[in-house]
Prior knowledge:
Blueprint (H helix, E strand, L loop, with lengths): L8 H13 L11 H21 L31 H7 L2 H8 L18 E5 L5 E4 L3 E2 L7 E2 L8 E6 L6 E6 L5 E6 L9 E4 L4 E5 L4
Antiparallel strand pairs: 1-2, 1-9, 3-4, 4-8, 5-6, 6-7, 7-8
Amino acid sequence: MFVSIFTSPLVQQARLQYQCKQCCRVLYSGNTVQQQQQQRTVLGVAFWRASLQRGQLTQLVKGSSRLKMSQSNPADVKDWRALTEEDWKARLTPMQFEVARRAGTERPFTGEYWNEKRTGIYRCVCCGTPLFSSETKFDSGTGWPSFYAPLSKEAVKERRDLSHGMIRTEVLCAVCDAHLGHVFPDGPKPTGLRYCMNSYSLKFEPKESS
């Protein structure tokens, strides 16, 4: 009986490994949207577990403090990049500091905003800079807040990330260099991009009802 090489276990394993290295990038156009979301979710959880093993997230902070956003006043800082590590620890909760200042990753489906449906603006949790709008938010199936575009190109900046044996594009706040997440080329139209962000790096500002 003829067996296609494309269905062999070795090829399937190599395919999955290659996709993992792209960190959830959709490589096979024949897959449905639902299959793509499932792939992103499975690989996203695997990546988060890898970050734990690497010591990127040392602990999970329990209780209401996990969702407590920074209470500092952005107007009292003239140069965000001049703040020290101790300054940031005083201004942020432990999880906010771990994610935004140490490039950590929150667990999928646990962040405050992955399923947020309200209209509003997502600001940087560190400096308050407007970063994303609910108008560009979409359900990526990954368990992290996802957007297909930032509010403006000037709001965020990108840099190459070679951690965890992968080549990715990290997304940071252009004002204070806070780690926000990563951007991938598997998003919806019109940009085709998926800005996969961490809730702990964001502060949602709902639109006031008229």
